[in-house]
Amino acid sequence: MINIAGVISIVLFYVLILAVGIWAGRKKPPGDQSEEEVMLAGRSIGLFVGIFTMTATWVGGGYINGTAEAIYTSGLVWCQAPFGYALSLVFGGIFFANPMRKQGYVTMLDPLQDSFGGRMGGLLFLPALCGEVFWAAGILAALGATLVVIIDMDHRTSVIFSACVAVFYTLFGGLYSVAYTDVIQLFCIFIGLWMCIPFAWANPHVKPLSSMEVDWIGSVDPQYYWFYVDYGLLLIFGGIPWQVYFQRVLSSKTAGRAQILSYVAAFGCIIMAIPPVLIGAIAKGTSWNETDFHGELTPEGDLTSEQTSMILPLVLQHLTPSVVSFFGLGAISAAVMSSADSSVLSASSMFARNVYKLIFRQNASEMEIIWVMRVSIIVVGVLSTIMALTIPSIYGLWSMCSDLVYVILFPQLLMVVHFKRHCNTYGSLAAYIVALFVRLSGGEKLLGLPPLIHFPGWDAENEVQLFPFRTLAMVLSLFTLAFVSWLSVFLFNSGYLSPESDYFNCVVNIPEDIRRVDEPSEACEQMSVLGGVPGRLYGAASTLVGPDETSGRINPALEADDDLDDPNDGPTPLFGNAPPPPARSLGKQTAF
User: Fold this and answer.
1) Its family (predicted)?
2) Per-residue CA distances from 429 to 357, 493, 504 (Å)
3) Which of 195, 415, 537, 544 fits a 20 to 30 Å CA distance from 35?
């Protein structure tokens, strides 16, 4: 029997999200259909909206549901996501936000393609794409399962309806719609959860959280220490190289503001984790066999493993009055639906710009790229929906892809942003292969993928790798990238390999049109030129500057950095007789 009140609640909040998304999409300047306007909201996101949308990078449906589940199943000490993602925003702001925004990039993959070329950039696009698509699919799948339990709505109907709403307003307004619905999303989560907590806490079937019978803190066994550290590092550094984060960074008005937003959002991640932590603890202290919950329970009276993923909606439904749960469930469901939009936009932006334009159609017009992105939004939305409906282990797929983002993309992004002169395409390809092999060799229980290597500390009984093999894969990838890049330069410059063997054109066999836009440099400084795709610019400057200005990525959207001025920076030169900017050509590039 469908819960009519629940359906009305969810429809009302869905309409609210949809209305805000359509209204925000109308904020685009009339007739302006440029890449930056649609993908980055014209780099005009203000401070207030910026704080909310940056916080919503990680705070969404998966974040609040996962936090509550972790508290219930393992305890507070194992709830690493809030602290891990908060630190990822801090480190992202310290080491990546400023240089990425100052360069005027449009997507996270731009600096990688700058250094390694279109073909290698396309290869690096795969883990980034899969991570975004599987994340959106996982959100939709979790939402569908939740609505089935809460209002008895058909699973397929709820998933398809939610996906259509998210895709529609994203298609209509781009990042404007995503950013402004993020504001509503966080308000819905915060108010909806805090409204329900007092009633759930006061429920007579809930034991005092200070009671010794309720262990919601948990503990870490000594044999799991390295496993614990491995996952912590995965969340911190693996949470940086995601387009959903850099989408917000690159849409900020200035580089300094992008850093400030990252720091404030880190604080926001911690604040927004408090309600689901309390709800998870309340669920842990609940005698579920005494409530009106009629589902299957363990002999001890606890929820089964199949039901723990729905801890948060179950608490709202069974431990709070119907009027309170009416608003709480509607708000949470709408927020979960809304959190899929940024992943859809991120994957579509990277495909339209970094694959379609920069690999297949270098001369494509702005309008053509926008239409490709719109089609991509629909395709990604359909793919995510199909996966949510058909793949039972969608969380396992996303978990594997998030690992690949950590072990493959993080070392490469770190090198091209800060050590660009010490990496090239040969090192990138070798590092990619090494990281992929080491990670896959560790297996993935959620996917039924057996381990090829039993690392030290292998737990045969639980089939768990206790050794931090993910971090090992990341470190080996970083070392391989630097070493193979150095080795390739040494072999070519020493004459062991002929210039004709420089297949990627990134050491000695450098095309003339790439040399022309660079100042003279030694061989060791010529390591990061494009791999076989000459004459390509990545910033807005590619369509706004003349042939004599191609040595710099001059982005007219960049403003004076009032939020975080660098005392070493002189006045920003404009086009004309002012001194030229530092070289940011397709050949050797500076780190900042």
Assistant:
1) Belongs to the sodium:solute symporter (SSF) (TC 2.A.21) family.
2) 22, 20, 11
3) 415
Distances, alpha carbon 147 to alpha carbons 191, 197, 288, 343, in Å: 20, 20, 20, 21
- The CA-based diameter of the chain, rounded to the nearest angstrom, is 81
Beta-carbon contacts of residue 236 (< 8 Å; ≥ 6 apart) = 84, 87, 88, 91
DSSP state of 582: P
Helix (H, G, I), strand (E, B) or coil at 545: coil
Q: Which amino acid is at 575?
A: F
Q: CB-based contacts of 137: which residues, under 8 Å, 6+ apart?
A: 383, 384, 385, 387, 388, 391, 394, 397, 398
Which residues are bridge partners to 465 per DSSP? 458
Per-residue buried b or exposed e for 487-523, using 16+ beta carbons within 10 Å of the residue's own CB = ebbebbeeeeeeeeebebbbbbebbeebbebbeeeee
Angle at 212 between CA 206 and CA 217, to 5 degrees: 85
Could you give the CA distance from residue 252 to residue 267 in angstroms, rounded to a whole number? 18
Separation of alpha carbons 119 and 504, rounded Å: 9
CA–CA separation, 470 and 407 (whole Å): 7
Residues 6+ apart with CB under 8 A from 444: 396, 399, 400
Compute the distance between CA of residue 516 and CA of residue 71 in angstroms, rounded to an integer.
Answer: 59
Place of tokens 């994203």: 170
What is the C-alpha to C-alpha distance for residues 299 and 275, in angstroms, rounded to an integer? 29
Q: Which residues contact 37 (CB under 8 A, 6 or more apart)?
A: 28, 29, 174
pTM, two decimal places: 0.83
Nearest-10 crossing angle of helices 394-404, 366-390: 130
DSSP summary character for residue 462? T
d(CA 55, CA 45): 14
Which residues, 6 or more positions from 374, have their beta carbon under 8 angstroms from its beta carbon?
A: 171, 348
CA distances 482 to 221, 404, 416, Å, are 36, 19, 11
Of the chain, the end-to-end C-alpha distance in Å amounts to 60
Q: Is 26 exposed, middle or buried (0-12, 13-18, 19+ CB in 10 A)?
A: exposed
